[in-house]
Write a structure and sequence with these properties.
2 domains; alpha/beta; 6-stranded parallel β-sheet; disordered N terminus; 27% helix; Rossmann fold; Quinone Oxidoreductase, Chain A, domain 1; 372 residues
Length: 372
């Protein structure tokens, strides 16, 4: 199975029933010792922390996110992160020490994997316990063969790629469905990176008005993005016109807000799309609501559909092109979309997770933890 080395480093564990609570464990065995045939060992160099990681932990049981990196401690789990790691030891043909890979990791200085389906592009972790899990999370990309990779853009790739794949495929799902007949899309948590990434992908779609709902404190930031056609503070929701077919794209997960949406738009509400939330850590629950039943959106489902429709090579090509346009826009200082905040070490990661879980972050900031 995938196992964390008891090595010269640390790992950060999260309490499953209190996501802001974590603890550091020192490791004791030298990395690389006792490497078995078919295994590699990687050292995690840097990773991003966003509210998306809190979402992984919040849905850790319901969607098996805790199962990717078992800790052997029932009350404690590994919060998954996206980042870059370097191979420090290998007993696998085609994977050599010094190579750098992008993928899904535990917050730990070292991790062992069992590569299978090794190609020039990368590999999948073939650990037995990971085989029933969503395969997209088991894939590790060799940066030397990644058409989308740019060493100068690692921070942006970590911060946005996991979110933008959701944004890109959500926009594709909505367009593929004709937006269920909607002419207005109303986004909650309009300041979130996944929400404005989706709006970026849909901004030029004909016949659609994109409306952002946000807190009063984030209103100026949302308006400065230019990703939406209009915005409203949450207490202004009932002032929005309710005379055109409307689709709700829910990034807040707030049941009270969902009920207000259904009550206000009434028969004009054609679809309720729940895209996930970090601030509300409950899974989508059945509610007695008038109008369409809320539907949970899961990006891998649309990825599988498009892999069948277009083929994986075309999916990757279209995604990479859209992602590069988005990142180029985001990193342009004059646009004011993002300030990268780099922090160093496991303690910084522990403190940042607690702040994200408590909602203490600015939508303009993107957090990167460096261990290298």
């Amino acid at each position: 199975m995938t196992q964390l080395t008891q090595g010269a480093g640390q790992r950060l564990l999260t309490r499953k029933n209190a996501l802001g609570d974590s603890r550091l464990e020192d490791t004791t065995t030298w990395p690389g010792a006792g490497l078995a045939d078919g295994e590699i060992e990687l050292r995690l160099g840097r990773f991003a922390l966003t509210t998306n990681n809190i979402t992984y932990a919040a849905f850790g049981d319901a969607m098996q996110y805790w199962d990717f990196f078992p800790t052997g401690q029932p009350e404690w789990g590994h919060m998954p992160v996206w980042g870059f790691a370097d191979v420090v030891a290998s007993a696998v043909e085609g994977v050599v020490p010094g190579e750098r890979f992008y993928g899904y990791f535990p917050i730990a200085s070292h991790v062992r994997m069992q590569p299978e389906r090794v190609t020039g592009r990368g590999f999948y972790d073939g650990a037995e316990h990971r085989k029933p899990l969503v395969s997209a999370y088991n894939q590790y990309t060799r940066v030397s063969r990644d058409a989308a990779y740019d060493a100068a853009l690692e921070n942006y790739q970590m911060l946005y790629r996991p979110l933008f794949i959701t944004s890109f495929m959500l926009a594709d799902f909505l367009q593929d469905s004709g937006c269920f007949g909607a002419r207005r899309l109303v986004f909650s948590s309009g300041s979130s990176k996944t929400a404005y990434g989706t709006a970026f992908c849909l901004h030029d779609a004909e016949g659609l008005t994109l409306t952002a709902l946000t807190s009063a404190g984030n209103r100026a930031f949302v308006d400065s993005l230019g990703a939406y056609h209009e915005s409203a503070a949450y207490d202004e929701l009932e002032g929005l016109p309710a005379d055109v077919p409307t689709l709700y794209v829910d990034f807040s997960g707030n049941p009270a807000l969902r009920r207000r949406i259904h009550q206000h738009f009434g028969a004009a509400l054609v679809y309720d799309c729940y895209a996930g939330s970090a601030q509300n850590t409950d899974f989508l629950k059945a509610e007695d609501l008038s109008g369409p039943e809320p539907k949970f959106y899961f990006a891998p489902v649309q990825i599988r559909k498009r892999n069948a429709d277009w083929g994986p090579a075309i999916v990757n090509e279209r995604f990479n092109a859209a992602q590069r346009r988005f990142i180029d826009h985001v990193r342009e200082p004059s646009h004011g979309w993002l300030t990268v905040v780099e922090e160093t070490g496991m303690l910084a990661a522990q403190q940042r997770i607690a702040a994200l879980h408590a909602g203490r972050s600015h939508p303009r900031e993107g957090y990167v933890i460096r261990l290298d």
